[in-house]
């Protein structure tokens, strides 16, 4: 698995935590071991430019997903084919505001957004009520299982 994390902000994050989380999600979703993903942390100005350019929406957002090879989850018997999953673009300052409102840490919010975005890259969505339930239940299970598996948890 090739998981690149690039922090273009002044936010202090432990990049290996994002790599470990993505690797956990990849394994849980039975992705090919050679699957590639890029996670980029950017400031509000850069996120606002992307938000306007790609979604024609004003202001910065918390996370955006840019799929590449349209991969879907595999199974234990039939892992997903090799490919480039895409890019996850996070905005730590927007995530920090959301984390404060939700009552948890910025890093927890960023990890949640990372799982959320990887699921989008795998074809999950939350436009319809049933889709939302499936995606958010899976997102919660993946994140909580990852956090519980970490030393000292």
UniProtKB/TrEMBL annotation:
PANTHER family: ENDORIBONUCLEASE YBEY, CHLOROPLASTIC. It holds the Pfam family YbeY. Its main location: cytoplasm. It is an enzyme of class 3 (hydrolase). Its EC number is 3.1.-.-. Keywords: Cytoplasm, Endonuclease, Hydrolase, Metal-binding, Nuclease, Ribosome biogenesis, rRNA processing, Zinc. Single strand-specific metallo-endoribonuclease involved in late-stage 70S ribosome quality control and in maturation of the 3' terminus of the 16S rRNA. This is Endoribonuclease YbeY. Belongs to the endoribonuclease YbeY family. Its cofactor is Zn(2+). Binds 1 zinc ion. It comes from Brachybacterium rhamnosum. Zn(2+) binds at residues 116, 120, 126.
């Amino acid at each position: 698995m090739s998981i690149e994390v690039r922090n273009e902000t002044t936010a202090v994050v432990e990049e290996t935590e994002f790599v470990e989380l993505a690797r956990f999600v990849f394994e849980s979703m039975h992705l090919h071991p050679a699957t590639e993903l890029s996670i980029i942390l950017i400031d509000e100005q850069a996120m606002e430019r992307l938000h306007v350019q790609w979604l024609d929406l004003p202001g910065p957002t918390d996370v955006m997903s840019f799929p590449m090879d349209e991969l879907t989850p595999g199974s234990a018997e039939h892992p997903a084919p090799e490919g480039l999953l895409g890019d996850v673009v996070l905005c730590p300052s927007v995530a920090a505001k959301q984390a404060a409102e939700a009552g948890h840490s910025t890093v927890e919010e960023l990890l949640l957004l990372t799982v959320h975005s990887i699921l989008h890259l795998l074809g999950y969505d939350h436009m319809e009520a049933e889709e939302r339930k499936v995606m958010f239940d899976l997102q919660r299970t993946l994140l909580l299982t990852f956090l519980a598996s970490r030393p000292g948890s």
